[in-house]
Write a structure and sequence with these properties.
This protein has about 400 residues and is of the alpha+beta class. The protein folds into two domains: about 210 residues, L-fuculose-1-phosphate Aldolase; about 160 residues, L-fuculose-1-phosphate Aldolase. The mean pLDDT is about 95.
Length: about 400
């Protein structure tokens, strides 16, 4: 993985927050690290004599974030929250917002407490494809330990307070200098340092190790002849618009990767093993619609029935989302993603593209394995997202 740091360029950034913006933008420039709002970064500083955590605000992308995209939160408040026995995500968000020094700033990242717990000035968190691909394999625990012997490795826990609480307990008595970073299984990676440059370079070095492991243990050639799709695109648009309740925009992917992926045996089972990293589920749902060109209506009906069984199995008082798919894979023809706009469809396609590559490589490591059905439901029906629907 290319290191984009420039000593000359970095001299332009005079403050802690300015340097934080610079390296956040560097991370965001590589979509093998973060995609469309993924990942988060922070820096600890002082304002008027008070210790403050500047943490990425919700709704900002690392590639384009500016100083105003970081929320300044009282560090002491976040550390107190980490000691609580329980805290709903809704109360966590309101508590973090109340502790902000600038009430006009965006809501702090849901990982703000975790960033506060890490006793270093600069903290970088990404959902690096290579790291999550290794983790999302049947032997992911063993592989991650092999590649990252000096990292703290954390089993999958729902993001937010539960994750922060888990790491707070795991690091009691820990000599932080003894670890190179943190790996969150099925989720991502943290690096940190007193220096913005060193924290960034630790991330690049760690992800490079993962990429080198994959190149050696899971090389992948997706060379595949182009197949002209016989699908009736107008029919798909009309049908999915009716299913979704709005006029859908499409992103059609017939790249060699998409064609190779769509040509796999037992395609429905193959392609329905879950998301690459938990935050993707809100964009893509857990699984795609898998169809032959001619059975769109029947396959969609079955998809919705399966989705409702999934919802009924785990739901308590949640509001059910639209059970229609957010993307489809057409046997031997490629992938089509649906969105309210072309941009939304393109974002889903980006996520699906990275997922396809990860699934194929993880299978070479013993099999692809995402988070469980229940964990998927908890993420898809996250309290914070549900609150928006209920309002």
């Amino acid at each position: 993985m290319e290191n984009l740091w420039s000593d000359e360029k970095s001299l332009e950034y005079k403050s802690d927050l300015a340097l934080r913006v610079y390296t956040s933008n560097l991370l965001g420039q590589n979509d093998a690290l973060v995609l469309h709002g993924g990942g988060n970064t922070s820096v600890k500083s002082r304002i008027d004599g008070e210790d403050v955590l500047y943490v990425k605000g919700s709704g900002w992308d690392l590639v384009s974030i500016k100083e105003e995209g970081f929320a300044p939160v009282k560090l002491a408040t976040l550390l107190k929250m980490a000691k609580l026995e329980q805290l709903s995500d809704t109360d966590m968000v309101s508590g973090q917002k109340a502790a902000m020094l600038d009430k006009e700033a965006p809501n702090p990242s849901v990982e703000a407490i975790l960033h506060a717990l890490i006793p270093y000035k600069f903290v970088d968190h990404t959902h690096a494809d290579a790291v999550v691909t290794i983790s999302n394999s049947e032997n992911g625990v063993e592989h991650i330990q092999k590649v990252f012997p000096n990292f703290l490795i954390v089993p999958y826990v729902m993001p937010g307070f539960l994750l922060a609480q888990t790491i707070e307990r795991m690091t009691q008595g820990l000599d932080w200098e003894s670890i190179g970073g943190i790996i969150l299984h099925h989720h991502g990676i943290f690096t940190f340092d007193e220096s913005a440059k060193k924290s960034y370079e630790k991330m690049i070095a760690a992800v490079t190790l993962a990429e080198e492991f994959l190149e050696k243990e899971a090389p992948l050639d997706v060379g595949h002849a182009y197949i002209e799709s016989k699908c009736d695109i107008k029919r798909i648009v009309a049908f999915m618009s009716k299913e979704k309740g709005y006029d859908v925009a499409l992103s059609i992917n017939q790249s060699p990767l998409a064609l190779f992926y769509s040509s796999q045996e037992n395609l429905k089972a193959f392609a329905s093993r879950g998301v690459l990293t938990p935050e993707h589920i809100i964009r893509t749902k857990r699984t795609p619609l898998v169809v032959e060109a001619e059975n769109l209506e029947e396959a969609t009906r079955e998809y919705k029935e399966e989705y409702m069984r999934y919802f009924d199995t785990f739901a308590t008082d949640e509001v059910c989302l639209n059970p229609s798919p957010n993307y489809m894979i057409i046997k031997n023809s490629g992938v089509i993603c649906f969105g309210k706009t072309s941009k939304e469809a393109s974002i889903i396609n980006d996520i699906v593209t990275h997922t396809m590559m990860a699934v194929l490589r993880a299978d070479k490591l013993g099999g692809y394995k995402s988070i469980s059905l229940q964990e998927s439901f908890e993420m898809e029906y996250w309290e914070l997202e549900q609150a928006k629907l209920k309002r």
